[in-house]
Structures are given as structure tokens and as C-alpha cells.
Sequence to fold (243 residues):
Amino acid sequence: MDFALQLWSINEELEMDFYGTFEKVAKMGYAGVEFAGYGGKSAKELKSKLDEYGLSVAGSHVPLDRLKNSLQEEIEYNLEIGNKFLVCPRAEFSRRDDVYELIDILNNAASEAKKHGLILAYHNHAREFEKIDGEYILDLLIKHVPDLALEIDVFWVKYAGLDPVKYIKQCGDRASLVHLKQINGDKKNVDFSDGVIDMFEIISASKYAKHFIVEQEKATSAPMLSAKRNLEWMIEDILKKDN
Fold:
């Protein structure tokens, strides 16, 4: 099974040596990356380096204002680098009208992306499990944006008090991307080996996932070391449970 790394996990390393860090990620054994910014690089140059290191693109986090105001530019860039998933990484909402305004923006972006063979996904935090009109906000997005895929962040589902395995199953084929991120009993983001989420169960439940993406927002050691440990632990755990 192949895993990608959300590059935000190692953001400081990228700022020091963008392409050198790509090479290190590939040597760790990651098959792909998910972007959270492009380091000011051209799409042509970025695609060349991805090919050089044998890395695929599992997605790209595109801020909501870019989806609203610079969508065509993002579509063209991501087509050139070979990325299929544009991901809205977060949205702010304090009232009901904000949620329905977000629904309109996502519908427009999802429809336009679809014309070019791309897919718009939404990445959850815990906030999307607050209720409006008697439903979780994330469920409202699913209901009212028919072309929207989901990037389920299992850390934030658990943080909100839900069972991420059950929620992924509930989402069915809308759960196209899965963020593998670990949580402990104190609701802290920790290395995979030190938390309470069974990643093997997550993967087993994610029957429609196109990519599994490792992320760690707050590394308990050096970020690159945590990225390496998480991948090794994930592979060892899968092999152990498969046998």
C-alpha cells in the first residue's frame, strides 16, 4: 500500500531546502506528496522534480479565497503537475448564513473543477461537527454540494468526539482522501505509535479512498524524524495485522 505525506508536516524543512526535502521524502519510502503551497515554483519545474524523485501528487490544499477568486489559475497549475484533487483546507463560519455561503462557493468550484477532470474535496477540522439545522455542518456540505469529495482527517473527527471508522463508512464513496493523523488521550497530535486511533481499522474502512496521506501538525520530535517513524510504523502495523 502506498502512502503520501502532507508537506505541511515538514514545512520548515521545505523553506530551507525545497527540492532537497522532496528527495529525502522519496528516500523514506513515501510514494507521493500533498501540497500546502508550491514554494513559489513554476508548475513545469515542480513536475520535473516530482518525476525525478518518483513522487506522485495526492492532492493540493488550496485556500478558500483562491478557490473563489483564482480558480482557473489553480486548475491550470494542478493539471500541469498531475494532481487530480483540489482540497479546501478550512473555512471560517460563525453563523448559518456563512455555511450556506460556503456551500455556494464549493458548488461553483466543484462544478468548474469537474469540467477539467479534477475533483474538489473538503478537509474537515472539529468545527464541522457542530450542528446547524439539526445536522453536522460537514453533513450539510455533503448534502448540498453533490460533486464534493471529502478528505477525512481522522484526528479531528476523533477530537470532535466521533468514531472516525464509523464516520468514514457513513461517508461511503465521498471519502476519497484520508488524512492519517494520530491523537492521544489528551487530544494531542502524536506519533502514530503513541495514540489511540487504530490506523489499520481506518484503512480497512476506507474502501473508496484514492490516497492515504500521513500528516503531523505538531511533531513530538524533529518533523522529518516523525514523518519517517510514522511511515515505518504504518507499514509494520499493516504487515503484522495482515499476517
In short: The CA atoms of residues 3 and 202 lie 14 Å apart. The mean pLDDT is 95. The two ends are 15 Å apart (CA to CA).
